[in-house]
Amino acid sequence: MTYWNQEIETMDPVRLRGLQSERLVKLVHYVYEKSPFYKKLFDEKGIKPEDIKSIGDIQKLPFTYKKDLRDTYPTGMFCVKNTDLVRIHASSGTTGKPIVVGYTQNDITNWAESLARGFTSVGLGKDDILQISYGYGLFTGGLGAHYGSERIGATTIPISSGNTERQLSLMEDLNVTAVLCTPSYFSYLIEVAEKEGRSLKNNKSLRVGIFGAEPWSESLRHRIEERSGIKAYDVFGTSELSGPLFTECPEQNGMHVWADMFIVEILNPETLEPVKDGETGELVVTTLLKEALPLIRYRVGDLASIENTVCACGRTHPRLMRLTGRSDDMTIVRGINVFPGQVESVLMKIPEVSPHFLMMIERNGELDDMTVQVELNDLASDKVEDYNRLISRISHDLRTVLTLSVDVELVNPGTIPRSEGKAKRVIDKRKF
């Protein structure tokens, strides 16, 4: 097993928790002194820095929210002066004001360090060639992966998203060994390559894919690996925290959260109490080392579970298990919570259909109707009964998982729009 920083990555859990306590205490004093936002928040809650003596006191601290970042737009939560910033990223702002995130040089260094550990854990190093197919610019995905790649000494191809033909050509011509992009876009790359008769399975150099920026299922992982011959790994991050941060290791059993840099809590969204290891709840993160924009008990909005046992790879840091979706990705149909990931998990077990689908939700009178458009892999059959049988199977399996009856519509290959970034899975036409 190869480590980037073996001493830290395999640190005794008791020592690791002690380090978290030390850094949490320092963080609380830092934000209270440097940030008018945090000083006001703490004062309103009757909290003084001296009240926090260890990680065991973390539940005394207030939560922070995405709304706080928008309400203090653009830099009201920053803890440093503009002269200390070396980088600014921002979200798209499609649901309101964009979220602006600043970085000091130490923030950038720690971001790259986090990814260097993850990339090394899946066997990447200075002999590898990484094709970064996440978007560059204000979006954190491309540049985050880029600096992690350079940190481990790999050759980096900053191709960004889009231009699929060029992506495939460079992948072959430059003997790329790893690709980083959204899982839906890589599925599209597989599809285009197969149509052109140059299956990615025939690419002997390509062996690793690191996919994130959208929820994806274990079933899609198996489909990707089967059709491309690579090992597919999950990566997690958000713009507010620093973009991509944590990856799986070769065990493919959870993303290692570097506990020397972050404290992760999984809370019951209703009671806000911690759930047991392995139980699903809302992800809450505290950044221990960020200087420009520290976040304390930040409610990310993702639904996940955590595993604190030592991984078979030897790493002692907690593992964030596969995310089941975002609370804001969830839609309610006839009183039932529905996530796109649930639909994907069903479809990926059916070989006749592709990973591409759309959930169309409309209101018919007082009731909600949901139609799932499912794209066929091919048009191998011309028999109506075959298609009816497939529709019945999909409908049955979806009803079993969703506990909800939905309509299923089969559409021709290539019908559903492809995305170079995050896939759009839900079109909600209801008027509330």
What do you see in this structure?
It is an enzyme of class 6 (ligase). With 432 residues, the chain is of the alpha/beta class. The protein has 2 domains: 1-327, ANL, N-terminal domain (Rossmann fold); 331-428, ANL, C-terminal domain (GMP Synthetase, Chain A, domain 3), CATH 3.30.300.30. It has 11 helices and 21 strands. It has a 6-stranded mixed beta sheet. Helix 11 (384-402) links the parallel strand 19 (367-376) and strand 20. Helix 2 crosses helix 3, helix 5 (105-121) crosses helix 6 (140-151) and helix 8 (183-195) runs parallel beside helix 9. The longest helix is centred in the N-terminal third of the chain and has 22 residues, at 13-34. The chain is globular and about 75 Å long. The model has no long low-confidence stretch (mean pLDDT 91).
